[in-house]
Amino acid sequence: MIPAIIVMGPGGGTDFNTARTFIINNWDVFPGILESYGVSLTSMFEGTRDFESNTQWNAFRCPAGCNRILPLDCADLDHMKARATISCVKKPGQGGLGRLNTLTPWEVYDSGAFLAINYQNGATEMLNYTYNAGSITYKKIGFNTNATSALNDLLACDATNLQPLCPRCNRSKGAK
Ligand SMILES: [Zn+2]
To answer: Residues whose CB is under 5 A from ligand 1 (ion)?
Structure first.
């Protein structure tokens, strides 16, 4: 099972721009975080390069076919499984949020806990949730209040489904 690792933004909410900012800003530790949960991004991780400047820049190898090593600053953030095809299977009882492998739908239970990552410091935390008719209610990270979100919007910020892509490959990939 690949656990969902939801990038949680300011105020305990989720949005894609926050997820992108977090991953770009924490590229030095991000692959290690995913790897500790059994998800490998190391083939894309190229440490830092100077790119013919006087500064070292975070670098990635574009995984979409061009195979180039590029500055992470220039990357688009891509959903490996396309945003429009994110889907969930409801299971009875209690459990986590995750998927069997990168091709299968996510699984959600009546209630349980999922893994969130705080965009400010990269700390991970298990957040209790309840699920009802496409919506998920969970405790905000760092707060004692709850938030409710469409489950698919939450899963759009699952770090295990996000990767940097060069803009050219992202364009030719289209909405796939
Ligand atoms: Zn590319």
So the answer is: 62, 64, 66, 166, 169
